[in-house]
Design brief:
By secondary structure, the chain is of the alpha/beta class. Helix content is about 50%, strand content about 20%. A six-stranded mixed beta sheet has the order 13-12-9-16-14-15, sandwiched between helices. Strands 2-3-1-4 form a four-stranded antiparallel beta sheet, with helices on both faces. It has a four-stranded parallel beta sheet with strand order 6-5-7-8.
Amino acid sequence: MPQTADEMDAVAVRTWCSLALEALGREREAIDAINVYPVADGDTGTNLYLTVESAHQAVEAVFTAHETGTTVPVAADVVRAMAHGALIGARGNSGTILAQLLRGMAGVLAGGHDADHLCRALTSAAAAARQAVAHPVEGTVLTVATAAAEAAGRTADDAGTAAVARAAYEGARTALEATPGQLAVLGRAGVVDAGGQGLVTVLGALVEAVSGRAPERRHVAAPALPVADDCAVADAEGGPVFEVIYLLEATDDAVDRLRTRLDGLGDSLVVVGGDGLWNVHVHVDDAGAAVEAGVEAGRPYRIRITHFGADRVHPHAEPVQRAVVVVVPGDGLRGLCKEAGATTVLARPGEPPASGELVDAIRRAHAREVVLLPNDAELRHTAAAAAEQARAEGVRVALIPTRAAVQGIAALAVHEPDRSFDEDVVAMTAAAGATRYAELAVAERQSWTMAGICQAGDILGLIDGDVAVIGEDVPETARNVLDRMLAAGGELVTLVLGEDVPDSLADALEEHVREGYLAVDTVVYRGGHQCAPLLIGVE
């Protein structure tokens, strides 16, 4: 549950960041669909998600660093980490502006975390964002941010943090609804500003973090015109063809000169940051000149150049036709999947892969078509964002929402690269969907579960993600889980043993299946170092 303490302390900031990432994950595709300004490239929701994902990772790193000690993170450290993470991971025009909004808030919230500081932080954020944009345009996220700050400023002097956050959210939502009348391209498409919609989503998460209650969500209306139609309008107006983004280490004076030079090269110029580190975003026709300007100003790195409307071409060798990218929980399954020809991403215990790792794996696969198997329900938004980013680079990606490694194994077993992409995806999806999954876990504390009250040290049997069995030892619990799963039928049992689990357990479970279910086969794999001592699949 989100905390309800009336202040923006370290825990509240962490909760806000987590809720914002979750909310943007839910709304990413809808926000992408209404992205018609400044370029109708359908990636605003994805860019905002990736920006907040980077902020979330930075915040979690602060808390992880304190887990082994006796101190608790202070709000100033957490809010600065959130802003810095957004700065270094900012994507696109919208993500870059959001990074500056968070930086503007951090400068104030680092000095205090009551309602007055939150109100002033929102005002600082709106002003900082406008200053970062070379040519501010009304009807965009800048308008929405200003309205949020003004609404927060109108709250009573004795209003609490929750009241300030809710006022900012309502003010932003009202301003967002007016954006189609302020910007012609939005009016033609019949949509609100995508970046503004993203900010409203982030502010809604703030409300939930400080009040414990999420504001009522409104449906994001699809564009009246297809995005492709609006792209044609943009192309006819002769907009720049490249988006250039890079991080830059440079002095304030050098950045001032850089702004002037880049402003003459293109449009949609946003430069955010400070204290020697900046994130530069610009749309230009001459990408080389934009990078060269950064070299003259300081040290640019993490340079990303995107050609609007053009498929990105992988460098070096000719790409293969199709590949499978799979997330695996242990080294044993990693080897198994590699033998099957898949490109793997290792999910270490407690460290789920970020979308950037999945995109890198898709690039490593070096294929025109990629099937992505996340093998974890918690990775659904991360995997979706990675797939969208890879598609923007010209790769055809199909995301099969596998929720467990055994579902991924089942999908990989029926993969046939020689048949059509659609047929292959359908077959793999069907195989994964026909596989029920379970795992054993050790209870860390006394708690309520769907199977009753468990005590610390109990062995939990989770079927399809819910606790179904509570036992005292692994063999007994595993047998009970198998019996429950096979009661609904099955043809094949897959067992994946953790690093410290003896082979004798697999032998005993194979015998149990053979004696009780004559028509059911069993296969056993060594998973290596993984979170669960045993993974079970039933097809």
